[in-house]
Design brief:
Helix Hairpins; 8 helices; mainly alpha; minor pseudopilin epsh fold; 203 residues
Length: 203
């Protein structure tokens, strides 16, 4: 069985950027349901969740893919935020400057692409082919399926991520998220090869 990873901070730790009610609903209800449905379908297993996602995608099992991928995406999303993040520095900042000119250049592309994502999805900072890129995925999509892209950070742009706090202002949510919560220390570790893996299922 796959567990619901606990938040790496308290539910109210991201206030006022993300309210406690959003976090309680998002983590304890939405994320929990994706994990529960994945468990209902898969049953007893020792398979890493990443393999379940990949095989469900390859086999066209939409229900399993959607739930398993959303379980993974949300776990990665919680890690992509910190209540008081350190500034980007070192190799990460150098890669950001090389790809986008500056952190502000990255923010502009991240907010623009995230706001333009039609319907539900995710906006990602990824490393691919030796350079950083901003990319979006629809619904439960992930950037690493059939790709060498390594995700560094993600922001959830499903309405459930921001509607209680920002209503229809998705661009303001993403911009504030980028300025106040983006976990550059986590992104730096992903870039250095310490790639996130979902907690292994209990046998
Ligand atoms: Fe979400």
């Amino acid at each position: 069985m796959y567990s619901l990873p606990p938040l790496p901070y308290a539910h109210d730790a991201l206030e006022p950027v993300i309210g406690v009610l959003t976090m309680q609903t998002h983590h304890d209800k939405h994320h929990a349901r994706y994990v529960n449905v994945t468990n209902e379908i898969v049953g007893k297993t020792t398979q890493p969740l990443e393999e379940v996602v990949t095989k469900a995608h390859q086999g066209g099992d939409t229900k399993l893919f959607n739930n398993a991928a959303q379980a993974w995406n949300h776990a990665f999303f919680w890690e992509s935020m910190a209540p008081a993040p350190k500034a980007a520095s070192g190799a990460l900042l150098a890669a950001i400057n090389a790809a986008f000119g500056s952190l502000e250049g990255l923010k502009k592309e991240f907010v623009t692409k995230g706001a333009a994502q039609f319907g539900s999805g995710w906006v990602w900072l990824v490393a691919e082919g030796g350079a950083l890129k901003v990319t979006t995925t629809h619904d439960a999509g992930l950037p690493w399926l059939g790709s060498s892209a390594v995700p560094l950070l993600v922001c959830d742009v499903w309405e459930h991520a921001y509607y209680l706090d920002y209503r229809n202002e998705r661009d303001r949510f993403i911009g504030t998220w980028f300025d106040k919560l983006a976990n550059w220390d986590f992104a730096a570790r992903q870039l250095a090869g310490d790639c996130y893996q979902y907690p292994r299922p209990a046998a």
